[in-house]
Amino acid sequence: MVSLLHIAHLLDLQAAADMFRLVAVSGVDQGRDWELAPGRNAIGRSSDVTVQLRDAKSSRLHCVINLDGSAWTIEDLNSLNSTLLNGKPIRKGALSDGDRISIGETDLLFTTSADAGSHHMMTTVLQKEISDRNLKDFERELLAHGLVGRSRAIKLVLEAISKVAPTDATVLITGPSGSGKELVANALHYNSPRRAGNFVSVNCAALPESLLESELFGYERGAFTGATASRIGKFHYANGGTIFLDEIGDMPVGCQAKILRVLQERAYCRLGSHEIEHSECRIIAATNMDLEKAVEEKIFREDLFYRINVINIAIPPLLERIEDVEMLAGHFLEKYGSLHHKPIKSFSPEAIAAMMSHHWPGNVRELQNCIERAVLLGESSTITPNDLQLNPRHAPQPGPAMDFIPRSLRDVEREHILKVLDHTGGNKKRAAEILGIERNTLYDRLRQYGSLE
Question: Contact, 290 vs 427, CB < 8 A?
Fold first, then answer.
């Protein structure tokens, strides 16, 4: 006979199954939520866990939530980056409704709400966009990566990602520092068939040639002074996934030839070894440098340039997508309000006007840092221009009054096209994108003006 106590226990378990959820409030999974089952709920990047994260800084089996009647616990599973419960590292701890679990760069809300989306932490820019627009699945994914905006410039970037992500094509991402090149690389990986593999990021400008080579390819014991044990490299770790070569324009020339071999043959050797290893990884590169000019100056290999420039995704500076500033600012406001446990704030009209008129030489990264600083240091629930602490040197300066000079449309068009070309450093593809015309049309105009070099 089944006891009343046993029936009550089963009802408790069923209630837990109906009620408990994890909601991602930041990170690449922002906006997603998972229903938790009675018993063991594993969390990580592995394909066979209850809560599968895409955060590259989470372990494959990171932690586990146990729901056993009224006992709710979380336990770290010897993860690489530890598990934080309400901002503090834990080995094992008790869970309560509303607790925040931090894994890598992802914040997860543990909630008993049957409708997780009704929680105040989820009234986000992302959800507003989803409700206001008929978004495709890939657009929701990209918004979750922080690629938010409605400008024509950013829509071109999003469309390119949607077409290229499902392929294995090598991609070169170009754009100024702080414009979001690594965000695009993340979006390409996590919207690809390789999403279950590792996303490995390497900053080519941060290491000298000798260290960069050992970092990329690994080394054998005794290969150099201090090599007391063998070590695998980034290409080995990225096998089956994606390797992101950031600031590839700053890669030493000696290392460029070895990268070229990996691109051509997917083969390399560890330092101190003659044994050939293979890595079936996708290669994505990024630079803020004009690589065509670098090729002309003999500081970047021409054959490597054409190998990595199969698909080019050019990210515009924030000044060219200024209509996205308010939406980006709202996204960062919610992100850092949640991360630092600050009450959700709003912007005053004057603060929005100040942001819209700022030149943003540091691009999206400058805006992100500006909002985080305002969240941390702001005294009231509304962020003002004083909280933003924008540098007045980067505000638009009024120019001298000019007498009107009647000119033909041809002259005005020619002047504007040449100014855009000067702005892009002579990059005609980028200039055509800014002008909103085909590259062939740009060449035709330049021929007409006698300005084609």
Answer: yes
Distance CA 152, CA 320 (A): 10
Q: Cα–Cα distance between 161 and 138 in angstroms, integer?
A: 9
> Which tokens hold the place of 26?
């930041």
Q: Within a 10 A sphere around the Cβ of 138, how many other Cβ atoms?
A: 17
What pTM was estimated for this model as a whole? 0.63
In 165-199, which residue ranges form alpha helices assigned H by DSSP?
181-190
| Pairwise CA distance, residues 75 & 78, whole Å | 9
Helix (H) or strand (E) holding 24: strand 21-24
**Which pair of structure tokens corresponds to residue 34?**
């998972």
3-state secondary structure of 132: helix
CA distance 55 to 245: 18
Closest CA to 144 of 191, 102, 98: 191
Number of H helices, E strands in the chain: 17, 22
Q: How far apart are CA 369 and CA 386, in angstroms?
A: 15
CA dihedral 233, 235, 237, 240 (to 10 degrees): -170
Q: Which secondary-structure segment (H or E) carries 268? A: strand 267-269
CA distance 367 to 391: 12
Longest dimension (CA), the chain: 99
CB atoms within 10 A of CB 292: 17
Decide the pairing of beta strands 311-314 and 346-347.
Answer: unpaired
Q: What does each of the 453 residues of the chain score in pLDDT, given as a tens digit?
A: 444 344 344 444 444 444 788 888 777 887 788 989 889 999 999 988 999 998 888 999 999 999 987 789 999 999 988 999 887 889 999 998 878 899 988 888 888 754 444 333 334 555 566 555 555 655 665 665 567 777 888 888 888 998 999 999 999 999 999 998 998 998 899 889 998 899 999 998 888 877 888 888 888 877 777 777 888 889 999 999 999 999 999 998 888 988 888 888 888 888 877 888 888 999 999 999 999 999 999 999 999 999 999 999 999 999 888 888 888 888 888 878 877 877 767 888 899 889 999 999 999 999 999 999 999 988 888 899 999 999 776 655 544 444 455 666 776 777 788 788 777 777 888 788 788 788 888 877 777 766 554
